[in-house]
Amino acid sequence: MSPIPTPAQSQRIAPAATSPDLLRNFCIIAHIDHGKSTLADRMLQLTGVVDSRAMRAQYLDRMDIERERGITIKSQAVRMPWAVEDAAGTLVPYALNMIDTPGHVDFTYEVSRSLAACEGAVLLVDAAQGIEAQTLANLYLALENNLQIIPVLNKIDLPAAQPEKYAEELANLIGGDPEDCLKVSGKTGEGVEALLDRIVQLVPAPVGNPGAETRAMIFDSVYDTYRGVVTYVRVVDGDLNPRERITMMSTKASHELLEIGVISPEPVPTKGLGVGEVGYLITGVKDVRQSKVGDTVTKQHRPAAEALGGYSDPKPMVFSGLYPIDGSDYPALRDALDKLKLNDAALNYEPETSVALGFGFRVGFLGLLHLEIIRERLEREFGLDLISTAPNVIYEVTMEDRSEVLVTNPSEFPGGKIREVREPVVKATILAPTEFVGAIMELCQTRRGDMQGMDYLSEDRVEMRYHLPLAEIVFDFFDQLKSKTRGYASLDYEPIGDQAADLVKVDILLQSEQVDAFSAIVHKEKAYAYGLMMAGKLKDLIPRQQFEVPIQAAIGSRIIARETIRAMRKDVLAKCYGGDITRKRKLLEKQKEGKKRMKTIGRVDVPQEAFIAALSSDAAPAKDKDAKKK
């Protein structure tokens, strides 16, 4: 734990002025697990906004899931005072608005929204691991937003740290001298004071017109049970004051401002927000649809003529169906998704029904981790029990008559003559030690990857670029990559369009009846393996019936795999003690006839547990839970 501020440092945490010239808005960007949240902890302590008694590790990670997994899921904005000496030796009080951002590729949209609210970015690199895939991705995002980049090497206190080596790597990447890279330790607090001074010195002050019509950008919002929707804004022009009436420019909704303030790091009410300031608004509104991320807030009596640019809508990469196990929970699931969308603008969903699973929602996610986090939040925060169907992507199917069908669910895949099927493709960037090049190439080739190039960043680090079908990486590609490279590889990907592919729909038939929930769209070469796997899985999961049940995997009308669930049989010969063989044969024939009749009129009910086990995208974690119980 970092020591408390010294008396000399305490003089530098005087209350900050709110003139735009004395504001500095910046965020921390880095690869996952490079120490963003720990560095933010030291800044909070050093600037005095959190005292040593209230301090805890990863202070800004508020959700239980974030603390359990050790990752940041939500960006968190916090205001900190910091005083710096001017040329005359006088301490000038500044206000630093810091946003701690997530590092995982699935939460890039959170990072992009945070960057739009800042003028500078601290690019953090682990001094023991060097530049990783998301380091590059987030750097390019910051450069696109014309942000001032401050390169920083973290974890210099580690025995394995190589600050000189990675300072040179970082300087080559962004252009500059290795001496410009600040060396800090988020754990001990070494170098953090110099970093805060560098932020004040290099990050430009926000630009805006205090006398113009008010325009403030909504960059985040949360739902509070008692206070309603809490909206986080960054003021671009004009000002906002309590008890004024404001208007949301896209929804035209009008509200009275009940409370306005800054996050430091707990909500602190203020008398208003001026140009460049970041803060929160509370209007008491309970309708979650009236506060949209990217909307512009203006005053009702003097509205702005033109809204701010907003954010580009995120495109869902992976789709999965979410269904309540208890059908009566459907309204509760709808309300829960509405409230969660307020907190996660990247969430997309629409109602859908399944013959097997009932009413639910087709939900679009940015990746598998995003899917896992959303499902876990729905179950924890709203007390829901859910089934999630196997994740899949969007396909564009062109029929023989040139008509086009958009397929987000295998059950929507059209029958008849198909001219072409197109699937989404991503550009994947993989960074890894050079010794694993062969293993990575082999993995990418089995996933239908097309190599685009390879660059050596240094003697022992390589960057590989591939074009891969998105459907091939949404399941277990990242896990496989990690296991083949002993955890050293990092992955980043972005959509680049689509390509034609030889894809087919595999249907699962139970006693010649199609079960839509088990259908999947796969590459022709992998169709047999999928059919065999699903048929074998269902054979183990579905209980035996009074009659024989065939499980078949089919492409169109062609059966490609089959398993049979044997019928339960009563021992009809138990009462026969010797005697003529014809009597036994007669009893067996009678039983056989009964089974045949039962097969023609009987239907198979798949138990809910079998659906959960066969469709769950988290079959592996379930086994881990059972192991822990033992």
Q: What distance separates the N and C termini?
A: 36 Å
Physical arrangement of strands within the biggest beta sheet: 10-9-14-7-8-13-11-12
Coarse structural class: alpha+beta
Helix amount: 25-40%
Main sheet attributes: strand count, strand direction, barrel closure = 8 strands, antiparallel
**Beta-strand level of the residues, as a percent range?**
25-35%
Poorly predicted tracts of residues: 7-17, 616-630
Topology (SSEs and partners):
Elements: H1 7-10, E1 23-30, H2 36-46, H3 64-69, E2 76-85, E3 91-100, H4 108-116, E4 120-126, H5 133-144, E5 148-154, H6 163-174, E6 182-183, H7 192-202, E7 215-224, E8 228-237, E9 245-248, E10 254-256, E11 259-263, E12 267-269, E13 278-282, E14 296-299, E15 318-324, H8 330-343, E16 348-354, E17 358-365, H9 368-382, E18 386-388, E19 395-399, E20 404-407, E21 418-433, H10 437-446, E22 450-458, E23 461-469, H11 470-473, H12 477-484, E24 490-500, E25 503-510, E26 513-514, E27 520-523, H13 527-541, E28 549-555, E29 558-565, H14 581-601, H15 608-615, H16 619-629
Parallel strand pairs: 1-3, 1-4, 4-5, 5-6
Antiparallel strand pairs: 2-3, 7-8, 7-14, 8-13, 9-10, 9-14, 11-12, 11-13, 15-17, 15-18, 16-17, 19-20, 19-21, 21-23, 21-24, 22-23, 25-26, 25-27, 25-28, 28-29
Helix pairs in contact: 13-15
